[in-house]
Design brief:
This protein is α/β, with parallel strands linked by helices. It is built from 17 helices and 15 strands. The protein has a 9-stranded mixed sheet, sandwiched between helices. A 3-stranded antiparallel sheet has the order 10-11-12, with no helix packed on it. Strands 13-15-14 form a 3-stranded antiparallel sheet. The structure holds S-adenosylmethionine (SAM) and iron/sulfur cluster.
Length: 402
């Protein structure tokens, strides 16, 4: 979803920077909150939405965090009233991230009434010991209860987030979690291997030698994830993302498109991985509009102060040269199982993968990480496991303008 000078941006990300407590692995910008701080943030966010609304007609909206479900009913009502006034409601896909500890039937009902039609629930594990280890505020029981609440409120599109290769997690415990998660029968599953981010408690424990990373076990867990999710009826469409596909008939072209992405794939994330434009609002949010990447201040107080002066809270802004931008788009798109159709890449970026990236593709084919056809290039199952490393050579970052 690229925007031209005259057409508005069709995708919106909103960052909600509050959490009940910080999880031991998490480096996303978020902090414990007080009611007053959240009220002030809501006022500033509305001001920011006012500043960008004329360049937005969102088809996908994603409220992420942090923990958007921490906002209370009154705060959500204020946000929705403003979005209604600014004509930002009515997106085809409107996702809100929820933590199982902060879901109530009233809140879920309010979200549903205002057009939120997809919930992404941070579950991470269904093992109590591991939930504790991760510093999660919820129990496994709360996951099942919140999931039922979401269904009662009418949500028919729910994503469950899981993590694997958690220190102390055995293959058996992972299999059990996957089986229980599959039994929930959600429409979507995201599952990430633990990343040891600097400045997190888990990273400090790793550096202190409290545990070791077992790469072989992590690989076995990934393989189990791929096979179990397929057995449960999910289609993998990105390294960490799996969705159900509901066939709706339609034209041959529609069917072909569906075959490349399951129908319940996250449309918002597909736009990211396809190099589309999006506006970002909220502290630390990034945006990418007409070749310019922006990043808001990762400081809620500063964010609020700027917006209270009617200014956007942008910390940095970078214009990418066309080739650098295309390189990033190439690398992002390779995270998708479908990889790139050459004509689609050309249409999106103005560059031909078969020219600029011919050698990169050939070397991935030679080491078994890539496969090339007449019309497309994608990573093999093995390449996908190491997608970030595989895609790195496609970057052309030296082409970035100041
Ligand atoms: C920003 S969190 C949002 C979900 C919500 N805040 C929650 O945790 O309940 C998005 C997802 O990223 C994943 N994630 C966050 N930090 C991670 C890390 N260090 N390694 C792997 N996955 C991580 C988790 O699965 C998490 O659910
Ligand atoms: S994982 Fe989610 S709940 Fe935990 S600190 Fe990060 S954003 Fe907050």
């Amino acid at each position: 979803m690229s925007s031209t000078a005259s057409s508005p941006v069709r995708s919106l990300y909103v960052h909600v920077p509050f959490c009940a407590q910080k999880c031991s692995y998490c480096a996303f910008f978020s902090e414990p909150s007080s009611g007053d701080q959240i009220n002030r943030y809501v006022g500033a966010l509305i001001r920011e939405l006012e500043l960008i609304a004329s360049d937005l007609r969102p088809e996908t909206i994603f409220f992420g965090g942090g923990t958007p479900s921490l906002l209370n009913l009154k705060q959500w009502e204020e946000v929705f009233q403003a979005m209604d006034r600014l004509k930002l409601l009515g997106a085809e896909e409107f996702t809100v991230e929820c933590n199982p500890a902060t879901v109530s039937l009233d809140k879920a009902g309010l979200l549903r009434e205002h057009g939120v039609n997809r919930i992404s629930m941070g579950v991470q594990s269904l093992d109590e010991t591991l939930l504790d280890r991760l510093g999660r505020v919820h129990s496994r029981e709360m996951v099942f209860k919140s999931y039922d609440t979401l269904r009662k409120a009418g949500f028919e599109n729910v994503n469950v987030d899981l993590m694997f290769a958690i220190p102390g997690q055995t293959l058996e415990v992972w299999e059990e979690t996957l089986n229980e998660a599959a039994a929930l029968d959600s429409e979507h599953l995201s599952s990430y291997e633990v990343i040891y981010e600097e400045d997190t408690a888990l990273y400090a424990q790793l550096k202190a030698g409290e545990f070791d990373v077992d790469e072989d076990l992590a690989c076995a867990m990934y393989e189990t994830l791929v096979s179990r999710s397929a057995a449960a009826g999910f289609h993998q469409y990105e390294i960490a993302n799996f969705a159900r596909h509901v066939s709706e008939g339609g034209t041959r072209n529609a069917k072909l498109r569906a075959a490349r992405f399951p129908s319940l794939a996250s449309k918002h994330n597909l736009n990211y991985w396809r190099g589309g434009d999006f506006h970002g609002a909220g502290p630390s949010a990034t945006g990418y509009v007409r070749g310019v990447r922006t990043k808001n201040w990762s400081n809620t107080q500063l964010y609020c102060e700027q917006l209270e002066k009617n200014r956007r809270a942008i910390e940095s802004s970078e214009t990418l040269a066309p080739l650098a931008r295309a390189g990033e788009t190439a690398a992002f798109g390779l995270r998708m199982v479908a990889g790139w159709q050459f004509d689609e890449f050309l249409k999106t970026t103005g560059f031909d993968l078969r020219n600029e990236w011919a050698a990169d593709m050939d070397s991935l084919v030679a080491n078994g990480w890539g496969q090339k056809t007449e019309v497309s290039f994608q990573l093999t199952a093995q390449g996908l496991r190491f997608a970030d490393a595989a895609a790195e050579s496609f970057l052309r970052t030296h082409e970035a303008l100041a």
